[in-house]
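User: Predict structure, ligand heme C.
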Amino acid sequence: MKSKVSHQNFTLLVCFTVTLLTTALFSMGTAVAGNPFDGRPLYYKYCFDCHESSGSTYMLNAPDFKKREGLMVTDQQLLAIIKNGKGIMPGYQGILKDEQILDVITYIRNIF
Ligand code: HEC
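Assistant: Predicted complex:
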């Protein structure tokens, strides 16, 4: 009888832990990762002129996204760079919302 109770407790503990981990992972995903399907039209409107549909460009200093250039940093770091601008790249603060920039970042990370 005693062992049955502890087995139930163990099962409950496992269920609780799984639920907790799933919730944590899910909320992490929604907090950080953008939606590439929303990012695509934004990329073509705001970034395509310089970064092109291939993600690599002849433009001076511009990174080649196909070689992961400029992308080996966290989403939060890229968000700050894109908001503030870099070199001749304009800043997008006030033009795009943070969520929209994260959508574009997710698009770039996945498409090239
Ligand atoms: C006017 C042209 C231009 C436009 C428009 C533009 N970029 Fe850039 N981008 C550049 C150039 C040039 C660089 C290289 C900057 C440097 O290192 O001097 C760059 C760099 C980057 C980098 C790498 C940053 C790093 O730290 O190396 C990312 C990521 C990026 N752009 C994303 C975007 C996104 C997303 C958009 C649209 C929202 C965009 N760019 C719009 C020209 C542009």
